[in-house]
Amino acid sequence: MAVVSRDLPCPPEDVLRVLADGWNYATWVVGTSRIRGVDEQWPAPGSRIAHSAGLWPMVLQDVSVSRRWDPERGIELEAKGSFVGDANVAISVVPTAGGCRVRIAEDAVRGPATLLPEPLRDALISWRNRETLYRLGALACRPST
């Protein structure tokens, strides 16, 4: 399982607010190009975000499903990727003295990505999720206007 974390200079509530807004998903999740729809109940367990991955004209239709939502600690998702397969993703947010620490733990559970040796799979997922955390932090910690 690939695990990456990043310390952010904003309160946990700011990060959790971004996670709770499904329409922001494509802004911070690397590889997601657009949002096609968000269930009204998002991020309640069982609710879904319909999104696309890739660049036109090679766009794939994917879905992410909330498996667990804790409005004070984070979210667990099942990301259903048509090309690489499905992954379980857990994003946790904990307070720190200077803001918060955000941690993403992810692993492929079905599909072609599971055929990669675990060290290679973890390296690729970690590389992607470091950028994901950078983008999530940019959204969460931006000054309000």
Attribute tags:
145 residues; alpha+beta; Alpha-D-Glucose-1,6-Bisphosphate, Chain A, domain 4; 3 helices; 7 strands
Give the proportion of residues in helices: 10-25%
- In percent terms, what proportion of residues is strand? 35-45%
Coarse morphology: globular
Class in CATH? Alpha Beta
Series of H and E elements? EHHEEEEEEH
Mean pLDDT across residues: 94
Radius of gyration: 15 Å
- In spatial order, strands of the major sheet run 1-7-6-5-4-3-2
Number of helices: 3
Q: Could you say which structural class the secondary elements and strand pairing correspond to?
A: alpha+beta
| CATH 4th-level superfamily | START domain
The total count of strands amounts to 7
Intertermini distance: 38 Å
Low-confidence stretches: none
Walk me through this protein's architecture.
The structure is a single chain. The protein is an alpha+beta fold and 145 residues long. The protein has one domain: 2-Layer Sandwich (Alpha-D-Glucose-1,6-Bisphosphate, Chain A, domain 4), CATH 3.30.530. A hairpin with a 6-residue loop joins strand 3 and strand 4. The chain is globular. The mean pLDDT is 94.
What is the topological layout?
Elements: E1 2-8, H1 12-20, H2 25-28, E2 32-38, E3 48-53, E4 60-70, E5 74-81, E6 85-96, E7 99-110, H3 118-140
Antiparallel strand pairs: 1-7, 2-3, 3-4, 4-5, 5-6, 6-7
Summarize the structure.
The chain has 145 residues and is an alpha+beta fold.
